[in-house]
Design a protein that fits this description.
heterodimer, A: 182 residues, Pyruvate-ferredoxin Oxidoreductase, domain 3, six-stranded mixed sheet, B: 348 residues, alpha/beta, Rossmann fold, five-stranded mixed sheet, globular
Chain lengths: 182, 348
């Protein structure tokens, strides 16, 4: 088993948190896992990304040049990463900000209106959790209910007032892809 | 903290240092080791230790000198350009026989370079670095767990030999998060009978490195060399993998070793008998195992994130008994498994 995930978006969209959360879920499942942030001069508004590798074998490089999954939250990330996805891989798009589809039919593309669903869940800032919920809906790394229970381990204490919003966002991402039949 | 947690290398090493009894940290920010300094800023006060953000790298290493001479387990961390700035202080620590731990999360050079991971400070780390005849014990961890484990070992070694110990890692090891288990606090380090605490009633102690009397400095150097000899004899660490039937032996450390290891496994699956030697101590260097292997293997392949530095030590150990090939990326480039496999196929 080997899954290489790239998560990318504007700085401030919470892509690093998606990566850390997936890494945490994998660790709790006793998988081998690495999380590697892009640590350049990212700032709010710039593009940030991270790579998570989950494997049953030892992980060599924590960098990923051909991910099996890309979770992209803005247009520049879409342009950069959708051509790199491995054949047969998965692309999850934030349809609220990306009005394009990849010119590839050898990958599975799932478009999620993440900003819209996040607003409905109570805060547009939970769009990252909608995307994660969608990922869990397709990949079933853990049931979304389990991820909701793990939120308190992953979110810094100061955000614990937002546990409920984030749980809703996770669930709505999962429900969206299930309703869409993916 | 005895269960597995997800931590980046910088933070895991910081926590491991605290658990190893580190009571003094001075540093100056630089990417990709900023999380180290930030972690110590938060944790040191919580654990009764002292954190100082120094005004420069030179000040930081000099503060470590002061804390060490007063008996504290003291450390600093930085990344390549910052470590260059600390070299004068490191030479002084060695000359005065003061224990300290220094962490270098290497980035691309020379000069200010970039902030990407690199291994191009190997020469600086293992051949002295500052002025004078000296060596540091140098440790090259390949995982976040190994980095955390080596921190307490580094403090123990520094105290045992009264010599600085350098942890040589890179931006990937510093930034990457992996599950890690940090050992509970080790017992209080042994008392030190040489530290400067105010003589009071006892005989005054002298710590200095300016030795002007006839023959005095040469005698001091002989003493230091004898000590380095003991480190060489007692502190060697390395990992060997599938050497017994290997036609091709990869030699790599740190991040490069992770990638070379995956290439080795893939080569095996293609029927190429590949093995590997992974130095964990870069000084002392595992020259004997390399020398022993050179008489029965067909060739070596050294993989580094540099233009070729450790390869010189491998060649010295091999003494021309087998060809030593090289694959390296430089300026912050990280080799891929595919690139190494391609090189392996070319060689065999």
């Amino acid at each position: 088993m080997r899954e290489e995930i790239i998560i990318s978006g504007f700085g401030g969209q919470g892509v690093m948190l998606i990566g850390k959360f997936i890494a945490y879920i994998a660790m709790k499942k006793d998988c081998r896992v690495t999380y590697m942030p892009s640590y350049g001069a990212e700032m709010r508004g710039g593009t940030a990304n991270c790579a998570v590798i989950i494997s049953s074998e030892e992980i060599a490089s924590p960098l990923s040049s051909h991910p099996t999954t890309a979770i992209v939250m803005n247009k520049p990330s879409f342009e950069k990463f959708s051509p790199m996805i491995k054949k047969g891989g998965l692309l999850i798009l934030n349809g609220s900000l990306i009005d394009k589809e990849p010119k590839r039919n050898d990958i599975k593309t799932v478009t999620v209106p993440a900003n819209k669903l996040a607003e409905e869940a109570g805060s547009i800032r939970s769009a990252n959790m909608v995307m994660l919920g969608a990922y869990l809906g397709v990949k079933e790394l853990v049931p979304v209910e389990k991820a909701c229970a793990q939120l308190k381990d992953v979110l810094p204490q100061r955000w614990h007032g937002l546990l409920e919003v984030n749980s809703k966002a996770l669930t709505s991402g999962r429900d969206y892809v299930h309703d869409a039949g993916t | 903290m005895s269960e597995k947690v997800l931590m980046c290398g910088n933070e895991a090493a910081g926590e491991a240092a605290i658990q190893a009894g580190c009571r003094f940290y001075a540093g100056y920010p630089i990417t990709p080791q900023n999380e180290f300094t930030a972690y110590m800023a938060r944790r040191m006060p919580e654990t009764g230790g002292t954190f100082i953000q120094a005004e420069s790298e030179l000040a930081a290493i000099s503060m470590v000198f002061g804390a060490s001479v007063a008996g504290a387990r003291a450390m600093t961390s930085s990344s390549s350009p910052g470590i260059s700035l600390k070299q004068e202080g490191i030479s002084y620590l060695v000359a005065n026989e003061l224990p300290a731990v220094i962490v270098n999360m290497m980035r691309g050079g020379p000069g200010l370079g970039n902030i990407a991971p690199a291994q191009s400070d190997y020469f600086q780390a293992t051949k002295g670095g500052g002025h004078g005849d000296y060596n540091l014990a140098v440790l090259g961890p390949a995982t976040v767990q190994e980095l955390a484990d080596l921190m307490s070992h580094a403090f123990d070694m520094a105290d045992k030999y009264r010599n600085p110990v350098l942890i040589l890692a890179d931006g990937i090891i510093g930034q990457m998060m992996e599950p890690v288990e940090i050992k509970e606090k080790s017992p209080e380090p042994p008392g030190k009978d040489w530290i400067l605490t105010g003589a009071g009633e006892r005989k005054p102690r002298i710590i200095r490195s300016l030795l002007l009397n006839e023959g005095e400095l040469e005698r001091h150097n002989h003493h230091l060399q004898e000590k380095f000899g003991r480190i060489k004899e007692n502190e060697l660490l390395y990992e060997e993998i599938d050497l017994s039937d290997a036609d091709l032996v990869l030699v790599a450390y740190g991040t490069s070793a992770r990638i070379a290891r995956a290439a080795m496994t893939q080569a095996r699956s293609e029927g190429i008998r590949a093995g590997m030697i992974r130095p964990i101590t870069l000084w002392p260097f595992p020259e004997k195992i390399i020398a022993d292997t050179s008489s029965r293997t067909k060739s070596f392949l050294v993989v580094e994130m540099s233009a070729g530095q450790m390869i010189e030590d491998v060649k010295l150990a091999v003494e021309g008994k087998a060809p030593v090939h090289f694959y390296g990326r430089t300026g912050g480039g990280v080799p891929t498994v595919e690139e190494i496999i391609k090189k392996i196929r070319e060689i065999v």
